Design the sequence.
């Protein structure tokens, strides 16, 4: 098939709610004649085109270079999966549809890798046949129904485990060993393919497998999807026939699978603290992690902006929010804060104890500094391992409130006594802690004028909110352009969120 024929056959009949980014990237692939297809879950293709689930693309290896150029030009970026979900010949690309704000995930396969989670132990060398048979649907190339159903049956039987069979035999749970979504896919495709067409496709694609396996599996799901005896027999026949296509020895694959499941067993979960399935699905930018400090006074919408970023990226990226204020202290610091407040009350009645109150307050400030430094250190470690870390507040020397940083050293505020004796020692230790805190990769300043901030937060003391709003405005005027972005937060929230998302996406 020529490139022109491929491009003409793909069509442009996208559903109305297809994202603009999706239209652009598939339009480019179709126009350039890149050989690809959405190779699985085509029943839910409209949902994927709307950016609500992944797009799983099989791409001809000979077209890998042109494919990569096309999706990069459309704005997609490479991301890296957790090691347990990372396989040779499979790539992850994410794109940001600016119009809707959604992420689009392209799960790109150059080889057909199938099997259980964490293992994917079988590689079927049938990519060329699948791409040769691809047909246009909704503006995207997809496998012929008989081809897709053949692959789907293999996928289902390779994933079916003995524990699934035991649950089916004992009628435990409601789902059954074959998940409902997969059963629906099988039923949908079986309605488009006759048993003879399915046998013929299976014989052509996987001649090592008895073709009767495929219609028998379809009929079993239709008649009794919890027929454990039949499903185990079909599973054994499938695994035996596909043994030449294993990536790893069966024992090695079994050990990996058992290890992943044992980590999540109730008895070991609390000890090993394994990542959840959701954590394992999250990805990291191929260019490395990123630390972002979001700075804004009350009334700037800072908390809402952070929540929106988490909603936007948290389902797909490895992401952590770290609060660097003093309202959520560690347990030791909370105890020191309580003691400090108590000492202040007592010294108000007994002025002779003011020195002791100052000393306790200095210890409190030192404890808060250690909390902040520890959270920054933890966040930087996460970023070094690929995470996006959002800091809610950050100790920056140039964001100043009167004569001190908004989030920074405070012992010096305790008067002349802070320049001598024990207080002086605590002051120097606190300042040394803050001096060792490195700047984040990106600072986003949300500026809002004091009048707007007061209107949005009438419950906050006017003098406090005005001072902080002015501090951020002044910081914006003296901030260096490198690594600092100023966003006008007086605009509608949707515009502010969009601007912040765009700046973060540039650096991922």
Sequence:
């Amino acid at each position: 098939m020529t490139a022109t024929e491929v491009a003409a056959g793909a069509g442009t009949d996208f559903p109305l709610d297809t994202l603009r980014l999706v239209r652009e990237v598939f339009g480019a692939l179709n126009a350039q004649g890149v050989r690809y297809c959405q190779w699985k879950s085509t029943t839910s293709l409209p949902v994927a085109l709307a950016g609500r689930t992944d797009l799983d693309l099989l791409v001809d290896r000979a077209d890998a270079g042109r494919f990569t150029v096309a999706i990069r030009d459309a704005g997609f970026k490479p991301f890296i999966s957790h090691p347990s979900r990372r396989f040779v010949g499979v790539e992850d690309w994410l794109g940001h549809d600016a119009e809707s704000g959604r992420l689009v995930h392209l799960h790109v396969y150059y080889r057909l890798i199938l099997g259980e989670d964490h293992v994917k132990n079988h590689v079927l060398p049938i990519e060329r046949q699948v791409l040769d048979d691809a047909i246009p649907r909704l503006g995207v190339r997809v496998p012929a129904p008989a081809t897709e159903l053949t692959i789907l049956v293999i996928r289902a039987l390779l994933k079916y485990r003995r524990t699934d069979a035991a649950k089916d035999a004992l009628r435990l749970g409601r789902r059954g060993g074959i998940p409902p979504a997969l059963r629906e896919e099988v039923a949908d495709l079986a309605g488009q393919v006759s048993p003879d067409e399915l046998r013929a496709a299976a014989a052509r694609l996987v001649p090592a497998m008895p073709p009767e396996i495929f219609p028998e599996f379809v009929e079993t799901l239709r008649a009794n999807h919890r027929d454990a005896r039949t499903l185990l027999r079909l599973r054994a026949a499938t695994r035996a026939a596909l043994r030449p296509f294993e990536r790893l020895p069966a024992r090695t694959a079994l050990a990996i699978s058992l290890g992943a499941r044992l980590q999540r067993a109730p008895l070991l979960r609390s000890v090993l603290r394994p990542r959840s399935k959701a954590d394992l699905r999250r990805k990291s930018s191929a260019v490395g992690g990123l630390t972002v400090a979001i700075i804004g006074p009350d009334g700037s919408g800072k908390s809402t902006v952070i929540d929106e970023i988490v909603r936007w990226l948290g389902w797909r990226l490895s992401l952590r929010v770290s609060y660097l204020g003093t309202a959520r202290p560690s347990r030791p610091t909370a105890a020191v804060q309580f003691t400090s407040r108590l000492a202040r009350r007592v010294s108000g009645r007994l002025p002779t104890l003011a020195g002791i109150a100052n000393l306790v307050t200095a210890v409190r400030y030192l404890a808060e500094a250690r909390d902040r430094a520890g959270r920054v250190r933890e966040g930087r470690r996460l970023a070094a391992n690929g995470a996006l870390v959002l800091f809610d507040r950050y100790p920056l020397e140039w964001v100043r409130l009167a004569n001190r940083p908004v989030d920074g050293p405070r012992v010096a505020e305790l008067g002349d006594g802070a320049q001598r004796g024990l207080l002086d020692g605590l002051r120097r230790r606190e300042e040394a802690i803050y001096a060792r805190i490195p700047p984040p990769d990106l600072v986003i300043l949300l500026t809002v004028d004091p009048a707007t901030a007061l209107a949005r937060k009438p419950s906050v003391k006017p003098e406090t909110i005005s001072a902080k709003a002015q501090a951020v405005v002044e910081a914006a005027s003296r901030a260096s352009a490198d690594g600092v972005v100023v966003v006008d937060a007086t605009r509608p929230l949707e515009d502010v969120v969009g601007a912040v998302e765009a700046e973060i996406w540039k650096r991922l």
